């Protein structure tokens, strides 16, 4: 097997790069597409269910696909600094790829509202971490204004190169399955990823790599569901901090994706998200972060509503790794038992 060279080299002909573009890569992409038969049996019998485990990217989320593009293009354009607002993963990814490129990275995060693993990444890669006393939407407004006036490149998904990179996840799925799935389910926050996937599926079909297009089904958290409600949510709330967003930047293109694909955007409650989060870890051995499990909660909802026919191929994107947010995992799990360091004390706990 030849060595995986990261998404820019592997999907070069679908990306806006030239021989002059410096490729800033950490080997992102090539993430596992895991068949989840046990989970399917439980939540959607008869469905051929797959998990696209994007937590296996270099910084533990799908953002790396977009960031390799955004940082490479920023360096090509001569940028010395980049900036983003983030609920955590974008900041971790920007910090890592920025470090790799040797440029300055500024990240704005909502104070106290991002998972600790993500904060540790941004800090460790020496980004300038600015906590704003506000939410993601306010931080995004600020970075948009600053990048328009200062020599600092915006690397949020408003940057078109981010979407270009992220579309490669759809292409990998098609390469793995031999065709596009029937239904694609994913979490929606700022709505860049659903936009990117749809673009990837369409381009692959246009290039005759696939014969069909999936229905795009996006799920928001009920406390942060502006697209479902049809209006901006001023004070979004959810346990899934990664998608705690009340005014998504790619709102319109997400609507286009669901319209063109005969899909939909719906919502699930925090309770449903945490249930799915625990289930996928227990049934399949796959540890994702809470926001990622929104897609699995979405599959449960679709299945219960009779919307997934038998034989349907469904792919769920698990956007980020569970280790990003160990606090939530520990909080909902059975606690470890502490015993004396003797054979008998431990043996008493074995129920075999
Ligand atoms: N899942 C995770 C783990 C995320 O971090 C995000 C977005 C999403 C889903 C939603 O993707 O925004 O493209 O609809 N995180 C951004 C961030 C906002 O700053 O890390 P989306």
Automatic annotation (TrEMBL):
<dbReference type="InterPro" id="IPR004450">
    <property type="entry name" value="Thr_synthase-like"/>
</dbReference>
<dbReference type="InterPro" id="IPR050147">
    <property type="entry name" value="Ser/Thr_Dehydratase"/>
</dbReference>
<dbReference type="InterPro" id="IPR026260">
    <property type="entry name" value="Thr_Synthase_bac/arc"/>
</dbReference>
<comment type="function">
    <text>Catalyzes the gamma-elimination of phosphate from L-phosphohomoserine and the beta-addition of water to produce L-threonine.</text>
</comment>
<keyword id="KW-0456">Lyase</keyword>
<keyword id="KW-0028">Amino-acid biosynthesis</keyword>
<dbReference type="InterPro" id="IPR001926">
    <property type="entry name" value="TrpB-like_PALP"/>
</dbReference>
<protein>
    <recommendedName>
        <fullName>Threonine synthase</fullName>
        <ecNumber>4.2.3.1</ecNumber>
    </recommendedName>
</protein>
<dbReference type="InterPro" id="IPR000634">
    <property type="entry name" value="Ser/Thr_deHydtase_PyrdxlP-BS"/>
</dbReference>
<dbReference type="InterPro" id="IPR036052">
    <property type="entry name" value="TrpB-like_PALP_sf"/>
</dbReference>
<dbReference type="GO" id="GO:0004795">
    <property type="term" value="F:threonine synthase activity"/>
</dbReference>
<feature type="domain" description="Tryptophan synthase beta chain-like PALP">
    <location>
        <begin position="24"/>
        <end position="320"/>
    </location>
</feature>
<keyword id="KW-0663">Pyridoxal phosphate</keyword>
<keyword id="KW-0791">Threonine biosynthesis</keyword>
<comment type="similarity">
    <text>Belongs to the threonine synthase family.</text>
</comment>
<comment type="pathway">
    <text>Amino-acid biosynthesis; L-threonine biosynthesis; L-threonine from L-aspartate: step 5/5.</text>
</comment>
<dbReference type="Pfam" id="PF00291">
    <property type="entry name" value="PALP"/>
</dbReference>
């Amino acid at each position: 097997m030849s060595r995986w060279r990261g998404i820019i080299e592997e999907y070069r002909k679908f990306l806006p790069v030239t021989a002059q573009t410096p490729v800033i890569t950490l080997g992102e992409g090539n993430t596992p597409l895991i068949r989840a038969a046990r989970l399917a049996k439980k939540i959607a019998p008869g469905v051929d269910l797959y998990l696209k485990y994007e937590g296996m990217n270099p910084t533990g989320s799908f953002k790396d696909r977009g960031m390799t593009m955004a940082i490479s293009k920023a360096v090509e354009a001569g940028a010395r600094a980049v900036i983003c607002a983030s609920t955590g993963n974008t900041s971790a990814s920007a910090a890592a790829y920025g470090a790799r490129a040797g440029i300055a990275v500024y990240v704005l995060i909502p104070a106290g509202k991002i998972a600790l693993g993500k904060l540790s990444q941004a800090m460790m890669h020496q980004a300038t971490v600015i906590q704003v006393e506000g939410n993601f939407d306010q931080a995004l407004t600020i970075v948009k204004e600053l990048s328009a006036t200062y020599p600092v490149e915006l690397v949020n998904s408003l940057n078109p190169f981010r979407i270009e990179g992220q579309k490669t996840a759809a292409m990998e799925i098609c390469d793995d399955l031999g065709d596009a799935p029937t239904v694609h389910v994913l979490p929606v926050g700022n709505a860049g990823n659903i936009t990117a996937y749809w673009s990837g599926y369409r381009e692959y079909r246009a290039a005759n790599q696939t014969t069909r297009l999936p229905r795009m089904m996006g799920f928001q958290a009920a406390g942060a569901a502006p697209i479902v409600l049809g209006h901006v949510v001023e004070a979004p709330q959810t346990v899934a901090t990664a998608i705690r967003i009340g005014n998504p930047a790619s709102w319109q293109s997400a609507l286009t994706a669901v319209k063109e694909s005969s899909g939909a955007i719906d919502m699930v409650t925090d309770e449903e998200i945490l249930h799915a989060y625990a289930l996928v870890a227990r049934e399949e051995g796959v540890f994702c972060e809470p926001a990622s499990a929104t897609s699995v909660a979405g599959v449960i909802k679709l299945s219960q509503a009779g919307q997934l026919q038998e034989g349907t191929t469904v792919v769920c994107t698990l956007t980020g790794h569970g280790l990003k947010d160990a606090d939530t995992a520990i909080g909902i799990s059975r606690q470890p038992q502490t015993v004396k360091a003797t054979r008998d004390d431990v043996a008493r706990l074995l129920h075999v």
